[in-house]
Amino acid sequence: AKDDGRNTLRFFVPEMQASLAQRMDMERQLRGALEANEGLELYLQPQYTEQNVICGAELLLRWENNGKFVPPDVFIPVAEDSGLIYQLGDWVIESACHIGARLQDDLVDREFSLAINVSPRQFRQKNFSEKVLEAIENHHLPRGLIELELTEGLLIEDVDDTVSKMLALRESGVRFSIDDFGTGYSSLRYLKSLPLDKLKVDQSFVRDVLTDSGDASIVRAIVSMARTLELEVIAEGVETEPVRDFLISADCMRFQGYLYSRPLPLNEFRKLLNNDRDR
Ligand code: C2E
Ligand code: CA
Ligand code: CA
Ligand code: CA
């Protein structure tokens, strides 16, 4: 065992067995949830401008299993490993576009983007672009509404495939952001060659920006890099006013985090949108 040594070990270390069994159990239950279309829901976390106006939302998947919410950080990796991510990803895209259609009346005269998280394996499917475009068309969504959040790792993995998919989608008005920006290792030259619209500053930098001067420098560097590349920049994980104030002083344009709102079910998000309009 050379190349596959680590994988093989993973299955035979005794302490791992419980967790493997748990993962298989989770996979089975998640498959059941998808088949019954039960317990899965997309929540919306609003994104704000400097003037505190809602300018978008990120869709975050929630799974309620036997009365308990399983965190996506736990079940998404299981879905990725098992291949269930294809079915789950299709469900997310379809539900996202359905939500987009239901929001249309609330979005008149408003700049707004609806961001979908895309996992690497999901993006690598041959017909990924076609699937997304078909869902957008079926729901008659306007150009520019749908944004896809990709990670740095995904972007640098198979550049030709990445670029051709991005270009096909972009032609129909799909926008792209890089999620968790700063945690990977993409170069400036490389970023410049991709059809991107936005960088999302990872929350690990945002969190400690007031106490960790290294993180503060990183955030400033990312914002100025975005400016150079003519990309929008949004900070996620904004939890306090002082952090928001720092970000504004660093020229960040968009904000998302518990300071503003937790992720909300569609109906609550709509109420928020309409209050926002009435202000
Ligand atoms: P992410 O894409 O980086 O999403 C941001 C996470 O931070 C979300 O966790 C969100 O609820 C949380 N968050 C938002 N504001 C704050 C804040 O102010 N402070 C803190 N501490 N956290 C905040 P969530 O919903 O548990 O999702 C975790 C991860 O699961 C996501 O990280 C994403 O990688 C993945 N995920 C969620 N939904 C989907 C999906 O539909 N598809 C895929 N492929 N992945 C998803
Ligand atoms: Ca995200
Ligand atoms: Ca993120
Ligand atoms: Ca830190």
Protein topology:
Layout: H1 5-12, H2 16-36, E1 40-49, E2 54-65, E3 68-70, H3 72-82, H4 85-103, E4 113-117, H5 120-123, H6 128-138, E5 146-151, H7 152-157, H8 159-171, E6 175-181, H9 188-192, E7 198-201, H10 203-207, H11 213-228, E8 232-235, H12 241-249, E9 254-255, H13 266-278
Parallel strand pairs: 2-4, 4-5, 5-6, 6-7, 7-8, 8-9
Antiparallel strand pairs: 1-2, 1-9, 2-3
Q: Can you put this structure into words, describing what you see?
A:
The N and C termini lie far apart (65 Å). A hairpin with a 4-residue loop joins strand 1 (40-49) and strand 2. Helix 4 (85-103) runs parallel beside helix 6. This protein has helices at 5-12, 16-36, 72-82, 85-103, 120-123, 128-138, 152-157, 159-171, 188-192, 203-207, 213-228, 241-249, 266-278; strands at 40-49, 54-65, 68-70, 113-117, 146-151, 175-181, 198-201, 232-235, 254-255. It has an eight-stranded mixed β-barrel with strand order 1-2-4-5-6-7-8-9, surrounded by five helices. The protein is globular and about 50 Å long. It has 279 residues and is an alpha/beta fold. The protein binds ligand C2E and calcium ion (CA) (3 copies). One calcium ion is lined by residues 179-180, 200, 236. Residues 23-277 form the EAL domain. This is EAL domain-containing protein.
